Amino acid sequence: MGIVKGRSRAGLFIGFLFIVNVGFCVFAQESSNEERKIFVVHLGVRRHDDSEMVSESHQRMLESVFESAEAARESIVYNYHHGFSGFAARLTDSQAKQLSDRPDVFSVAPNRKVELQSTRIYDYLGLSPSFPSGVLHESNMGSDLVIGFLDSGVWPESPAYNDEGLGPIPKHWKGKCVAGEDFDPAKHCNKKLVGAKYFTDGFDENNSGISEEDFMSPRGYRGHGTMVSSIAASSFVPNVSYGGLAPGVMRGAAPKARIAMYKIVWDRALLMSSTATMVKAFDEAINDGVDVLSISLASAAPFRPIDSITGDLELGSFHAVMKGIPVIAGASNTGPEAYTVANVFPWMLTVAATNIDRTFYADMTFGNNITIIGQAQYTGKEVSAGLVYIEHYKTDTSSMLGKVVLTFVKEDWEMASALATTTINKAAGLIVARSGDYQSDIVYNQPFIYVDYEVGAKILRYIRSSSSPTIKISTGKTLVGRPIATQVCGFSSRGPNGLSPAILKPDIAAPGVTILGATSQAYPDSFGGYFLGTGTSYATPVVAGLVVLLKASHPDWSPAALKSAIMTTAWKTDPSGEPIFAEGEPRKLADPFDYGAGLVNAERAKDPGLVYDMNIDDYIHYFCATGYNDTSITIITGKPTKCSSPLPSILDLNYPAITIPDLEEEVTVTRTVTNVGPVDSVYRAVVEPPRGVEIVVEPETLVFCSNTKKLGFKVRVSSSHKSNTGFFFGSFTWTDGTRNVTIPLSVRTRVLNP
């Protein structure tokens, strides 16, 4: 059941990788016949500076639907009273309905689940600490900022949290570490790990389903939280590898940034959280003083109505952004199908995942002394065995025992099936020949090797030419650099944006395949406290750490300005100038629905020249354009609002992209840019129009000076297509000859009926 206020339109919301139950106020009506469930009640901007007064107002509101003050007080799960006003409470459906009917309530929503989206990265992206200058050094590696994570906890003994060489904890930090099972703040927190809290009240009264292996404390068993925090902000840790793979120095994007962990994800049947718990963590993080938030979570509700903003991840992140805290979130892992992208609201910075120029392989030496390499994340010892070809691996299992098996598959999903079959039948290893360009993201302790059909055919010819074919497989090795092509991963969720098609999502792409990071030493897949992780979960902290560096360099920039700088300076090729592809069937060149504005480029982002900034009035524009009523907008923003008539166009939201999902007649789109570069600057327009689309920019030149820091412009868009089309893509750039401020253009033509 969902009780939603704010918009009249209905639709579907796509489910994503991480499961979290989200909410702002949670109610339960006192009734002997009705079941109580956790609801999250969102009341918008708080009306008092005193948090205790805010909590008391929640109590009074609940008393209106309970028979006694005591029952109302006992129903409360969480009070949200720092960054915004709301609560989570155990309510009946009828009590929730009563509350939702009140004019001072923005939304009432049932507690839901959210899921986790699960070292070469920064050298690949051009951020080397050996360079004498650059954003890494200019920002002091993020030393004065705190990055917060809403995730699964930390393994505090990890060297990633070493605070050697760090100065005092930033003065603005008000957070703390909370004691719990096997977690002592005096022992486990330091000048690196400056905050660690955990939240369980958003589950049922008995915390049912939480694994006994997990810790009732900020300590995390699974290690996902340790992974993401180390990817963003690990200290320098030398001589790290995963069983010999990916060797080198591990470091985060912002190696001196401080880390605060808010444990909301628990080891249950799946790694899960609740929306009520997540909203409480947002509230605490805002009050504690985090500077950037990294959220590797997304809604798990597959058929969630989109008739209003009721998702607590979205609401919590909105309030954080209004407090000046950038929120970076993953696109989710349900690609490569279209319309699967998560975290699609315009105040979020949404991250897609690419690979990097590194792969893992093993040498295969055959009985004829020919050696061929194949892709393999193999950490075991060298294997020597007989070699056999099996066409029907599901049924022909008699000859597998002790042999390395060669088989051919047509679909990527068949590889897992083949591996399971050969493992059960105690084969010594498996070679899979497949047609696609799928890159394995799993590490194995037995030989599991990928080759293409051509190589598979060569191996098959050897098998058929020998009466007793044999093979020797080396342990896994690491290959860095060309010819590894950069591509958007098949699992990375794709646009268009299913909620607001005129808002481009994802926004940006970053490495998210076999990323080396620290993890829990208790986790079975850990190798000495390290792991190779794959998913938009791990691309997200890459960008979050880079945002820390940019914010340290430009403390006066808003979250929207930081996002614009990231997007308008992104690479459209890989760092070596080669094209970026999108993994799938068939593989194709990547477009904005695959990677947003492109591959993140922090060095360019530190000096973008111009930014597409947004403030509360721009977000009110968004709410009005998408059909929210005046009352709801006033509640969520705290600013009295009356939408214009006719409503403003969503195409005019000052977003660093122009996406027109249904171009019927010529339209004019407006944007405003703010000069953050040299005071006296002149920029001219350069357009690469989508095919069959005419773009006219007015004016064609922007002149900035000490008295002119912001300028608006118009973009007229028309189509020569005579029939309905799919999306075509182009770009629009303002250039001063040194800085290129580029945004994606995405246009789909819809021809009017005669």
Automatic annotation (TrEMBL):
Keywords: Glycoprotein, Hydrolase, Protease, Serine protease, Signal. The active site is at residues 151, 224, 537. Residues 39-117 form the Inhibitor I9 domain. Residues 652-747 form the Subtilisin-like protease fibronectin type-III domain. InterPro entries: Peptidase_S8/S53_dom (IPR000209), Peptidase_S8_Ser-AS (IPR023828), Peptidases_S8_3 (IPR034197), S8pro/Inhibitor_I9 (IPR010259), SBT (IPR045051), Subtilisin-like_FN3 (IPR041469). The keyword Nucleus does not apply. Residues 142-576 form the Peptidase S8/S53 domain. GO terms for biological process: proteolysis. GO terms for molecular function: serine-type endopeptidase activity. The keyword Protease applies. It comes from the Eukaryota. Residues 1-28 form the signal peptide. Belongs to the peptidase S8 family. This is Peptidase S8 propeptide/proteinase inhibitor I9. It comes from Arabidopsis thaliana x Arabidopsis arenosa.
